[in-house]
Amino acid sequence: MSTKPFQIGKYQDLLQTRHFGRSLWYFRSIGSTSTYLKNKAPLKLQQGLVCIADQQHEGRGQHKRTWLSEPCANLMFTVILRPHNTSRLQIIPLLAGCSVLKAVEDMTGLCLMMKWPNDIMMAPEKLGGILAESVFTGSRIDRLLIGIGLNVNQELFAGPDLANATSISKITGSPVDREELLCRILTELENNYALWEQEDIRVIRYINRHIMGYGQWCRIEINGDRVADQHKILGIDPRGFLLTLDADDTVKTFTHEQVRIFCD
After folding, report:
1. Across the chain, where does the E strand assignment appear?
2. What is the second-level CATH architecture of the domain 8-209?
3. Taking the alpha carbons of 190, 79, 90, 227 in that order, is the dihedral positive or negative?
């Protein structure tokens, strides 16, 4: 499998967005793209700026897990967003995940899903994840960092936390053009983010269709504790909170951090 460094010139030729990704900060190796942007002065960070690295040695996933990746094989990048409406921020990581799903499907034909709240799956295997972090100036959100890690061309996965890991190329049997895929992801993200700003209901509908377990009765954990009865997954509400129906026909509302879903 080719492990060429990310080709900036090729990427610039393929990019079709208006703003997202037009400013690109590229590193051969870095600790973490999100940590790097988190520590930068805000005046230099316009919306849509992308920081990408061919290798991260301090990449982070959910629950403070380390994200390990083969150099030059995958996509590891962070996008800067500066949302004006902060009441619906919980939707944005899901929106970013679905942007990845649509780009991958259009490019390869693979139909991926989102495992609540941030895993990109070809069940039962995992291809990537989304990590969103808010950076504050005083009590005001200055910027939102959307970190995306996607296994693209990696072939070998070693380690106890990678037992269910896979990559796009392992599934399809063919190498994937990282530059083209990133351009497609950024196009989808820019379009979906514009719909989010307009409070377009199509964003909610699209996300719900791509949440694993949507419309099904599934086992769940609430704050780390397994619930005895199954809940029906109703999808997200306009704020991005997960709605479920319990055995007593009561609708429950959860944040990203509160609940995990387990589908048989």
Report:
1. 24-27, 50-53, 75-81, 113-115, 119-122, 125-137, 140-150, 217-222, 225-226, 231-236, 242-245, 251-254, 259-262
2. 2-Layer Sandwich (3.30)
3. positive
- The domains of the chain are located at 8-209, 217-262
Taking CA atoms, 176 is separated from 114, 180, 249, in Å, by 21, 8, 45
**Predicted TM-score (pTM) above 0.90:** yes
The two structure tokens encoding residue 103: 């780009």
Query: What is the residue whose two structure tokens read 């780009």?
Result: 103
Q: Which residue has the tokens 């997202």?
A: 20
Write the pLDDT tens digit of every residue in 51-109: 999 999 876 555 456 656 899 999 999 999 999 888 899 999 999 999 999 999 999 99
- Model confidence over 130-152: pLDDT tens digits? 999 999 887 788 899 999 999 99
Q: Which of 191, 216, 186 is nearest to 203 (CA)?
A: 191
